[in-house]
Amino acid sequence: MRAPLPLLGLALLGGCTFLLELDGPARLVEAADVGPAADGPAPPDAEPDAAPPEDAARDASTPDVAFEDAGPMQVLVTDLRGGGGEHDGTRWEGRALRLLPGRSSGTFTSRIFAVDAPVRWDRVRWWPSLAYGRPLPDGGGAEAGYPAGNLDMRSNVLLLHLDDPAFLTGEAVSETSGAGHRVEVLGNEAAASRGVFGGGLSLGLPDRLSVSSDHPAFRFGTEDFTWSTFVRTTGCEASNHVLMGGENPTPGAEGPGTHMWLGCQVSDDCEGGEGLGGTQRPAGGPTVNACAAATYADGRWHHVALVKAGHTPGELRWLVDGEVALVSGPVDFGEARFDLDGGLPFTVGAFPRGEYDTEGTFDEIALWHRALSTEDVEAIACRGLCRASVQVRACVTPGCDADPPFGPDLTDDFSRDDGVVERAIALGPARYIQYRVNLTGQGALSPQLLRVELAGQPEAP
């Protein structure tokens, strides 16, 4: 093995930052080969760090190393594309680290970075693509700062985080859209549970959440709307298990009333019974029944959504984990309106009448009076079902072969509003530093991480 070169020596002079830019052909990486990644070197024919063709112009004009003023006596290492690191189920795609297709988890272990003199490493920062693990914003607010997936909660008319178990003792469920709903738990088997973001609510049979539909939130009229929830259930062993829905029977009125629900396939119209489905019918209008092959009822957490866009014609989309499972095609609803009038409540975990219940655990229930884009729904699904964490270790040997394992998983604590995660560490003094990224996703969903930065103060001579 070649002797470590004084890569970061200049970072200790004059208060400069050493920016390690490994984007494209990594000439600096070759010069800085101080040892293999923790799990061994990549095979000779592997090229995990090769730049995609669209980066060729940038690679030709961008130096591998740059210097910036970072304040007196600070060492800063920024790794942009993980040159020389080890992939296990991950890859760089464009500017982001993400899971390989078909993988639900994976790791990337960086190369070992060397500095001239021992450093007390005190900070790690990283740039996730979106806010993995962060609940939806309250009060109709809009997010900013993350590179992608910033949510605009405009027209959000119902939002239930289900984090406070006090509602199980008879208190109203906390509702944070700002619409002022009173939400109740009905039944005697409901229990507080762990959700995708924090708390969740487990509903037995025939438990349900009940919201009075005598509220403008449930008068969808001829406008667009979106229904969204995370659910963990096995409740599609037969048809017509309902996740949420409402109805206006309108006795004596001309034509059928409003009939709306999202859940398992419709028993009379679907052959499988176990996939995603439901019925959407405005008062006096055409009925749209859904028979999607994609299922959410396998005992794992899933995100399920229904989106209506347009009216004359309109289109209905059903989504599971951010992917479109079924599209209705254009439907002319004419003057028929999707309105509930307060006669029956809007319910979650069951239909407001009959025995069409779902036994399962719910989290982050939300309704909008607008059609979310498929990209918005995917971002909601991934912030609940995707996670990214970073681990760091400092070593006293060039190959880290006589040093302790990586430190604990560090995740986004959402203490900043600029989309950058910054966590304190206390490692060293040491000349060698290494990080590991752990990614988990589901289906086609993958978290994405843009870069990692390690910082510290040189040990006093």
List the helices and strands and how they pair.
Layout: E1 16-20, H1 27-31, H2 56-61, E2 65-69, E3 75-79, E4 86-88, E5 90-93, E6 96-99, E7 105-109, E8 113-128, E9 156-160, E10 183-186, E11 191-194, E12 199-203, E13 208-211, E14 219-221, E15 225-233, E16 242-247, E17 259-264, E18 276-281, E19 288-291, E20 301-310, E21 314-320, E22 323-327, E23 338-339, E24 346-348, E25 360-368, H3 374-385, E26 387-395, E27 421-440, E28 449-458
Antiparallel strand pairs: 1-2, 3-28, 4-7, 5-6, 7-27, 8-27, 8-28, 9-25, 10-13, 11-12, 12-25, 13-24, 14-23, 15-20, 15-25, 16-17, 16-24, 17-18, 18-19, 20-21, 21-22, 26-27
Instruction: Please tell me the overall pLDDT.
Output: 84
How helix-rich are the residues, as a percent range?
under 10%
Count of extended strands: 28
In DSSP terms, counting alpha (H) and pi (I) runs of 4 or more, how many helices?
3
Question: What are the salient characteristics of this protein?
Answer:
7-stranded antiparallel sheet; 461 residues; 8-stranded antiparallel sheet; disordered N terminus; 28 strands; mainly beta; elongated; 39% strand
Describe the overall structure.
It contains 3 helices and 28 strands. The chain is mainly beta. Strands 9, 11, 12, 15, 20, 21, 22 and 25 form an 8-stranded antiparallel beta sheet that branches. The longest helix is centred in the last third of the chain and has 12 residues.
Short description:
With 461 residues, the chain is mainly β. It has helices at residues 27-31, 56-61, 374-385; strands spanning 16-20, 65-69, 75-79, 86-88, 90-93, 96-99, 105-109, 113-128, 156-160, 183-186, 191-194, 199-203, 208-211, 219-221, 225-233, 242-247, 259-264, 276-281, 288-291, 301-310, 314-320, 323-327, 338-339, 346-348, 360-368, 387-395, 421-440, 449-458.
